Amino acid sequence: MLAPSSTSLPGCDMSSNERAQRILDSLHTAVLTCDRDLVVTSINPAGEMLFGVSANHLVKRSLTDVCGNDRESMVPVLKAIETGQPVTAHGMRLTLSPETLIDVDYTATPLIRWDGEEQLILELIRVDQFLRLAMEETLIDTHAAKRAVIRGLAHEIKNPLGGLRGAAQLLDRELPDRGYREYTRIIIHEADRLRKLVDRMMGSYKPIRTAPVNIHEVLEHVRKLLQVEKPEGLTIRQDYDPSLPELDGDREQLVQAILNIVRNAVEAMKGNGRIILRTRVKRFTKIGNLSHSRVIRVDIEDDGPGIPHDLREQIFYPMVTGRAEGTGLGLSIAQDIIGRHGGLVEFASEPGDTRFTVYLPFTHKVANA
Which among 30, 97, 257, 292 could disulfide-bond with 50, CB atoms 3.0 to 4.6 Å apart, if both were Cys? Predict the structure, then answer.
């Protein structure tokens, strides 16, 4: 039995209870209710999103079963029932599927409904989601600071390079001995090479020209490019959501961004392994300071060796690479292009399972600065 001190829902008629249910349905926090036997009686839409299934799959199931049969996590819930007082617990791990584990904090609150039935309300807050949002904000701020520094540095480098090249051209015309002109041409060639390198470090400097773009056409174009050059030991699989609508973007630059990410995976695997291109819709996503009701999510997964731990914090910085022959510019340019589309590139990596995830809003005012 729940203790008599349990809180009662406001009001005592059915309409008040219905209003309370509507309030729960409007919350962004996942909330589910249980009876005194810990059988789930209802769940709000935010809860359905957290568990990734509809209410029909959760109602009438045991709370212990819904939470992955982790009986230890149920101890605070039982304490709330025993004392009749709300109890908050941290770090409960929910097993949504064999591949999906999430961490949540939760508060269990005993109640007595308007009709006298004992009830327990469970509020769940996904901890790893807050950590992801914090990491995204840090990544966006870092990327903006990096772009400002690189643009300033590029300006300081390109000015003397221009003077150096011009002086070499003048010297080339004045030298009486043609044998010495080989040296001036080397100077001109190296100055041009450094200028191109600086331009690449700055990312894609072309203005973004938006038009309706089918993300699957972009991915298929990238896949066909790789089909021509891919080694025998590499396979590329598609897992597309055919219901995705078009987005506003620059097709050419999106191809470049995705191609850079996929080529990075191919090089990391040394041409042997499997790459999966996957698309989905992700709802209620925040990118930077903007919240989006829906965004396109593109996953590029590979079963390569993974990203070394000492490179993970700087993986999107230019000139950072784990390969002696690499330039370290591909991922930096990809992040720049996606960022100017209002999106974001994330990654998660461990040996045998590396995933780069691209988030793209369906509509966004692009940044060409």
Answer: 30
Burial class (CB in 10 A: 0-12, 13-18, 19+), 97: exposed
Q: 7-128 has which fold?
A: Beta-Lactamase (3.30.450)
Dump pLDDT digits (tens) for 259-305.
Answer: 999 998 988 888 788 999 999 998 777 777 777 888 999 999 999 99
Q: Is 107 exposed, middle or buried (0-12, 13-18, 19+ CB in 10 A)?
A: middle
Asked if domains 7-128 and 206-369 share a fold, the reply is no
| pTM greater than 0.85 (yes/no) | no
Structure confidence at residue 183 (pLDDT): 83
Q: Is 291 left (phi over 0), alpha (psi -120 to 50) or beta?
A: beta
Distance CA 133, CA 99 (A): 21
Domain covering 206-369, topology = Heat Shock Protein 90 (3.30.565)
Helices (H), the chain: 14-26, 45-51, 55-58, 63-66, 75-83, 127-174, 181-201, 215-229, 251-268, 330-340
CA distances to 53, 79, 80, 87, 109 from 75, rounded to whole Å, are 25, 6, 9, 10, 14
String of DSSP letters for 27-54: -SSEEEEE-TT-BEEEE-HHHHHHHTS-
pLDDT at 144: 62
Question: What would the mean pLDDT of 25-29 be, rounded to a whole number?
Answer: 74
Report in angstroms the alpha-carbon separations of 168 from 117, 160, 172. Answer: 90, 12, 6
User: In this structure, how many other beta carbons lie within 10 angstroms of the beta carbon of residue 349?
Assistant: 20
What gap in Å lies between CA 132 and CA 149, rounded to an integer? 25
- Per the model's pLDDT, the better-predicted residue between 38 and 9 turns out to be 38
Mean pLDDT of 169-178: 81
Q: Which two tokens stand for residue 11?
A: 């009001």
**Domain extent listing, the chain:** 7-128, 206-369
